[in-house]
Fold this sequence. Notes:
Double Stranded RNA Binding Domain, 3 strands, 18% strand, three-stranded antiparallel β-sheet, alpha+beta
Amino acid sequence: MPLEAAAAAWQLCHMKIIIEKHAEGYVGYPAGVQGVIVGQGNTFEEALRDVQSAIRFHIETFGREALESESPALDAFVAEATL
């Protein structure tokens, strides 16, 4: 896939990204995407950039269709529960 076509494919892709803070740093992944796409970093911003890079690589390697879902995540929430 030519670079311009790959760039155009991912630039139109809007996704919800989950960023989790852990003792060792931050981990990010796209919500509602099947498969494993993960980014990490020492800061929120590093993890976000890393997961964006991983998503772009995934699209360039497998095509935008690989991220399409019959039931995409419309929103993401965090809830706490006592069990």
